[in-house]
Design a protein that fits this description.
- The structure holds 2 protein chains of 2 kinds.
- Chain A is an alpha/beta fold.
- Chain A contains 11 helices and 21 strands.
- Chain A folds into 2 domains: about 325 residues, FAD/NAD(P)-binding domain (3-Layer(bba) Sandwich); about 160 residues, no CATH class.
- Helix content of chain A is about 20%, strand content about 20%.
- In chain A, strands 1, 2, 7, 8, 9, 10, 20 and 21 form an 8-stranded mixed β-sheet that branches. In chain A, strands 6, 11, 12, 14, 15, 16 and 19 form a 7-stranded antiparallel β-sheet that branches. A 3-stranded mixed β-sheet of chain A has the order 3-18-17, with helices on one face.
- By secondary structure, chain B is an all-alpha fold.
- Chain B folds into 2 domains: about 30 residues, no CATH class; about 140 residues, no CATH class.
- Chain B contains 7 helices and 1 strand; from the N terminus they run H-H-H-H-H-H-H-E.
- Chain B starts with a helix and ends in a 14-residue tail after the last strand.
- Classes of the chains: A alpha/beta, B mainly alpha.
- Strand 13 of chain A pairs antiparallel with strand 1 of chain B, so a sheet runs across the interface.
Amino acid sequence: MSKNTYDAIVIGSGISGGWAAKELTEKGLKVLMLERGQNVEHVKDYTNMTKNLWDYPHHGRPSLEQLAAEPNMARGKGYPFNEPTMGAWASASTSPYVEKEPFQWFRAYQVGGRSLLWGRQSYRLNPEDFMANGKEGVGVDWPIRYEDVAPWYSYVEKFAGISGSRDGLDVLPDGEFLPAFAFNAVEKDLQARLKKQYKGERHIIMGRTAHITEQRPEQGRVKCQHRDKCWTGCPFGGYFSTQSATLPAALKTGNLTLRPLSIVKELIYDKDTKRVTGVEIVDSETGLTEVFHSKIVFLNASALNSAWLLMNSARDVWDNGLGSSSGELGHNVMDHHYMLGGMAEVPGHLDKYIYGRRPTGFYIPRFANWGNDKRDFLRGFGFQGNASRSGFSRDASGMGIGAGLKDGLSEPGPWSVSTVGFGEILPDHRNKVSLNHDVKDAWGLPVLEMDAKIRDNELKMRKAMKEDIVEMFDSIGLKNATAWETTYHMGKGIHEMGTARMGRDPKSSVLNKHNQVWDAPNVFVTDGACMTSSSCVNPSLTYMALTARAADFAVEELKRGNL
Amino acid sequence: MERRALLKLIATATGAGLVCSPAMAVWEEQAPLTTVAQSGLSDATVALITELCETVLPRTDTPGAKDAGLPTFFIGMMREGYTAEQQKLMEAGFADVDARANNQYGKPFVSLNDKQKTELASALDTEALAFNNGESTGWDGSDYEGLPHYFTLYKQLMIFGFFTSKVGGTQVLRHVDIPGDYRDIEYKKGDKAWMTVWPL
């Protein structure tokens, strides 16, 4: 094999890229993993992992100058952008994008990508999620069904380590779970009351989370220590990330070459064989370009950047790039709409408090448009939440000043319950990203232009989400239930999906049922770009399962000589 | 953020090869907070802020504002976390506090005894609530359209800075770096609240 030739190239090192590298190397392929950002070594490079708020100059809050430097992320109090995570999100100063419609894009340009910064909620799509588009005539039908993915969900759950309870709900299929995190006493009480009030049709379950709750010495991982500092990197490997799980497994095979600082500019397409033969990168440090060749390519650059790379490839054959023959490349942008929820006071329980910082909350799975529940919109939503006693940040306006104020705030306040809703966004051809050649990034490459927004179905759903949560809280005896809502822009859910969707027909989809680009079957796209619909559950577990499934297929196809 | 972004921009603008140094951490080391010396405040104002902080969050059987280094944080954060207009209001407030002290007690705030300091600050706290509710008070505020009473900004910043300081977080509140698990515990009045690990 010549120096720059591999069996497979994986583009991106986040959740799905890490899985692609692990699966392909374990099956014996020589793999090159390209990552546009710098390397992050597990533990060694987690510079903030042991810090507390007082160790940050502004005690964790971004200063006005820091906010002004990143207006895209800072807008609407973007919760992920703060001093503990500062620097771990890509800067629009070097990697700009154009907003035709407001779009908040949180990108992590480093080895590990957003696997280091994710919310870790891990849910399976349900059988209905894979059928709803077809039944309702929305977008295109998924080319696969739940049964196709179920064994792969099991496969990735076992390796990644997903904690959760087996709840037996149709709407949220059970998986291969490690022991769930614990409810507190108040949450248990709410759970029982909700179940009774809604006769077993609405549920509070423990969030299913990619944290190990049992020791895993074979992976070099220590169970979650309840520090809740996940976004600074976990020295225990308590949560699933590329660094804690897939990368060490891939490196162990001896088949992986990892090349950070490698921005893939273009997939090199051979129109005679209708195959991609390799990639051209620009080294982000030296600015020099280099070409690498492989038999297959796994594109895992995250939904929007994978679409960007396809659009920037094979332009001599198709004006809008590789995979654009369907007219759907870059279209059908989805996310989960949120930035709304409800809260209520929970009277009593003042003899109870909590020890430890649980890195997840409870989950109220979808109930709208499920079973006998019918709405004036399609699909549904879920709520993440928790019950807790307030801390020093509670309203102190009536507590005066002096010793009384200090002593008062040094004790916990009353219990309250707080939730945030996440709703499904329908695929809509009008929601798109495209290349903008007038604006260039720091490496002279064209950038993405975002033109996507939520529409009637989502707006109706948002109204229902607010009404439902208040009604639920009222009905189970909580006090002063109120809904809250702040501005949601597409992208803010950090669940971008759909820009190279899977389908049954090359005329209306970019990928086939094995995540192969119809126009270049040796290219597999297995990140969020492939999603045909968005469901309302957090999507990363599905990317893991689809990646493992596609990698298995790819290796079989290579053996059969089909690629 | 600033430093890396700047380096990248310089490299791009000058055509230098080095766009991004891998030696730099992903999670960035940040520049220290503006110091008292850099704040441009007079010694008298710094002394006033120090006494105000201690009056709002005094040492009792647990540490107070001075023990926690709150005045220094307050000054740095005022400069870096507040708009020019908010800062103008906060500085006007310092003059107002001293004017009231002189008016009521015939000396500046720092020269009052503890009882007088508490009296004055309590009155301001009560007045701030009324002012924020739209009532007419001793603070005019018409030069600062849309902003609350200055004392409200002081109190919010003092509470945040104090309870997120090391002394506040570990000696006035409770903190365990590595809890190990999550469980219900009994609570009785007087038990401390836990320190938070995420910015509020």
